[in-house]
Amino acid sequence: MKERALGGKALSAKASGNAEVRRASGVRKLDTRALLAAQRPDLERTALEPTQAQPAAVAPMSAPSAGAERIELIVEGSSARLLLSCGAEAAPLTVLHAAISASGASVLQADQHNDAESGRTFQRLSLALGTAPGARSSLERWLGQIAQRSGLNFSVTLREQRRRVAIFVSKYDHCLYDLLLRQRQGELGCEIPLIVSNHPDLEPLARQFGIDYECIGKADGAPPGDKLAMEAEQCALLEDRQIELVVLARYMQILSDSFIGRWPGRVINIHHSFLPAFVGAKPYHQAQRRGVKLIGATAHYATAQLDEGPIIEQDVARCGHKDSLDDLLRKGRDLERQVLGRAVRWHLEDRVFILGHRTIVFE
To answer: Which of 122, 143, 185, 292 is the most exposed place for a label (fewest CB within 10 A)?
Structure first.
C-alpha cells in the first residue's frame, strides 16, 4: 500500500488529538493557479479562488479516526472511496461533488451523516474513476486544492494489494473458523497471512487453510515482564508480515496499553454482551442461573480501557426458561460469529469512523 499525504494547514494540537503520523511515500506541491486554469472555471467562481501556491504540509492522521479534519481518497484499481470528516461549517460538500464530476469520476454510492451532538459531518463516497488519461491525477489535484482551501488534511492511499489481517485466538475456534471461511469465500476482501495464539490447540485448523500459526507463550499467570516480552515478539511478527488489522477472535488475554497504543483503531475485539452484569469467567453459566431473557455479542475497537472501546456492532437473541446452558452457548457462538464478521468487513470497507468513545458506521 502506498500513501501520499497532501494538505492545507497542518492540524492544530487541539484538532489532531493523539493522532499518529502515517507513513507517506512523498509530498507534492499544489499549484492552485495552474490547476484552476486547466480545470473548470465554474468551480473557481463557486467555491475556489486562485491562491498563491504553497508547499503541501504533512499533517497528522489518526488511524481510521473521525476526529481528524480530513479528506481521504483510497484508490483500488479503477474504483475509489472518498472519506470526509470535518466540522459541519467547514464541510465542502457541493464543491467535492463538482470536483468529482470535473475529473470524470462518477459517484456509485453516497452515505452522509450530520452529527448533531458533535457538530460534525461525515461522508463516504464510492467512486468509479474516469477512464481518460490523467483522470485520477486530476481528481487528486482537485481534492488537494479543496482540502487546502478548507484547511483540511488530505491523503491519497493507493492499495495495490488487499489489506493484511492477523487473527489472535486462544482455544475457542468458532470465530476463527468463521473468519477464515468468509475470507476464503471473498466476503472480507483481505489476506489473512498470520494466526497468533497462546495455545497450540488450533494449529491444525491453520494448516488446513495454509496459514502460518505462531504459538507465543502461555501467558496465564506469567509475570508482567514475561507478558511484555511476549507482546514484543507479537509486534515484531505483525510488522514483519505488514499487518494492518488485528482481530481478537476470542483471544483470552488482556493486551497491554503499549500494544494498544501501537495499533490505535486497528484492533477489533469480540465478547459477550453480558458486561457489566456478569463479569469474569463463565458468563453464560452466570446468565443461565439468573434466568436472562436476552443474550448478545459486541464487537468493538480495543482501547486501554478494558472492553470499553468504541462499539462497531452488536446483536442479541432471545432466550427463555426452556433454554439449557448448551442452548445459551450455541446462541452466543452464533451471535459472536455474525457480529465479528460484520465488524471486520465494515472496517475493511472503510465504513467505520471513530468519534471519541463511539463510532459512525455506514452499514
So the answer is: 185
